[in-house]
TrEMBL record:
This is Methyltransferase domain-containing protein. GO terms for molecular function: methyltransferase activity. CDD domains: AdoMet_MTases (cd02440). Residues 87-189 form the Methyltransferase domain. One of its GO terms (biological process) is methylation. It holds the Pfam family Methyltransf_25. PANTHER family: CYCLOPROPANE-FATTY-ACYL-PHOSPHOLIPID SYNTHASE (PTHR43667), FATTY ACID C-METHYL TRANSFERASE (PTHR43667:SF2). It comes from the Bacteria. Signal peptide: none annotated.
Length: 318
C-alpha cells in the first residue's frame, strides 16, 4: 500500500520525539504487548482475571474490548453504523484499528489512517495490504495539527477516532489538532477519544521517577478540565466522559506488559521498550495514588459551532 506524505503546514518541534518513540521494530512491541493487534491503549479485564493478578500474555483482547465498549457508548455498535461514510483514524499506530474500523463499517467509502511514524505506517501497510478493505484505506504521513491538509475536504468525516494520541501533543499542537479535526467533521459527527489525564495540579505533579527523562513522549500532561475546554472551543459537544478502563485495570495491564518484557528481555532492554518497562512501575504508582486516570471521551460536532460557542459564553456570563 502506498503511504502519502502531507507536508507540514506549521512547525512541531516535538514531532521528532514522538517519531523516535515508535522507532523500535514491531516485533519488539509484539514481545511487550502480544502479537494480536498492537492497539497500545490499555484494556478491560474481568473480575476473575483481576483477582488472579497479572501474568505474562497478550493484552490485545482486553484492548479490543476497551474500544468495543467505547463504540457501544457512542451508539455505533449497531444503530448508527450505516451513517458512517468517512472515517479518520488519527494516530493510527501499526494499523490494526484502521483495519478494524474498515471491517466494522463496511459502508465507509474511505478510512484515512494518519500517523507521524513512518515505521508504524510501513508496518500498517504490510498488515493491511491483503485486507478485503484495502481499497478503501488510505495511509498518510501527516502531523496531527495538519489534518486540514488531507485530500477531499468537501467530504467531511462522520467518525474520528483518536486513542492514546493527544497524550503525545504539546498543548499548542493539541489545540491546533482539535480545531483542525472539528473543522473537517460533518455536523453531528462523532469524535471518540481515549487518553491519559491528570487529576492533580500539573504544576505540582512530580513523577515517582526522579530523573527528567520524557518516557514515551508523554511529558505534556493535561487535566480533564483543560482537555474538555479545548474540545468545546473547537466546536465539539460532550456526549460522554468517564474513567475507562479503571485504574485497577490499567495497573493490571501494566503488570502484564511488565511480565512480558521481563520474560522476553531477561538481560534488560533499552530504547522505547525500556522506557515502557520503567513506566510499568512509575505510572502504576501514579495510578494507585489516584493522581491520573485513563478517560474515554465521546463528543459530537456541534450542528452550528458558532452558535454553540456563543451559547457557552452566555452560560459562563450568567
Amino acid at each position: 500500500m502506498e503511504i502519502y506524505e502531507v507536508d507540514a503546514e506549521r512547525p512541531n518541534p516535538y514531532r521528532g520525539k514522538v517519531e523516535s518513540t515508535y522507532d523500535d521494530p514491531p516485533w519488539m512491541w509484539e514481545a511487550a504487548l502480544g502479537p494480536d493487534n498492537l492497539l497500545f491503549q490499555f484494556g478491560l479485564f474481568g473480575a476473575s482475571e483481576l483477582a488472579a493478578g497479572p501474568g505474562p500474555g497478550s493484552v490485545g483482547p482486553s484492548e479490543v474490548r476497551h474500544f468495543e465498549q467505547q463504540l457501544e457508548i457512542a451508539g455505533l455498535r449497531k444503530a448508527r453504523g450505516s451513517d458512517v461514510r468517512r472515517i479518520l483514524d488519527l494516530g493510527s499506530g501499526w494499523g490494526f484499528l484502521t483495519g478494524y474500523l474498515a471491517e466494522q463499517f463496511p459502508g465507509a467509502r474511505r478510512v484515512d489512517s494518519v500517523n507521524v511514524s513512518r515505521r508504524q505506517l510501513e508496518a500498517a501497510a504490510a498488515r493491511l495490504a491483503g485486507s478485503p478493505a484495502a481499497e478503501r484505506i488510505r495511509l498518510y504521513l501527516c502531523d496531527g495539527q495538519d489534518i486540514g491538509l488531507l485530500p477531499e475536504p468537501e467530504t467531511p468525516y462522520d467518525l474520528v477516532v483518536v486513542r492514546g494520541v493527544y497524550t503525545h501533543f504539546p498543548d499548542e499542537v493539541f489545540e491546533a489538532s482539535a480545531a483542525a479535526v472539528a473543522a473537517r467533521m460533518r455536523p453531528g459527527g462523532l469524535l471518540i477519544i481515549s487518553d491519559t489525564l491528570y487529576k492533580t495540579d500539573i504544576s505540582q505533579y512530580r513523577s515517582p521517577v526522579t530523573d527528567t527523562v520524557d518516557r514515551l513522549a508523554c511529558g505534556h500532561r493535561k487535566t480533564p478540565a483543560y482537555f474538555l475546554s479545548v474540545l468545546e472551543r473547537s466546536g465539539m459537544m460532550l456526549e460522554d466522559m468517564r474513567v475507562m478502563p479503571s485504574n485497577r485495570e490499567v495497573i493490571h495491564w501494566f503488570g502484564k506488559v511488565r511480565a512480558n518484557i521481563d520474560a522476553r528481555f531477561p538481560e534488560g532492554v533499552r530504547g522505547p521498550i525500556g522506557e515502557l518497562r520503567e513506566m510499568c512501575d512509575s505510572f502504576s504508582t501514579t495510578l494507585a495514588a489516584d493522581q491520573a486516570c485513563v478517560c474515554s471521551v465521546i463528543t459530537r460536532r456541534a450542528p452550528d459551532p458558532g452558535r454553540f460557542e456563543r451559547s457557552k459564553r452566555m452560560e459562563t456570563e450568567r
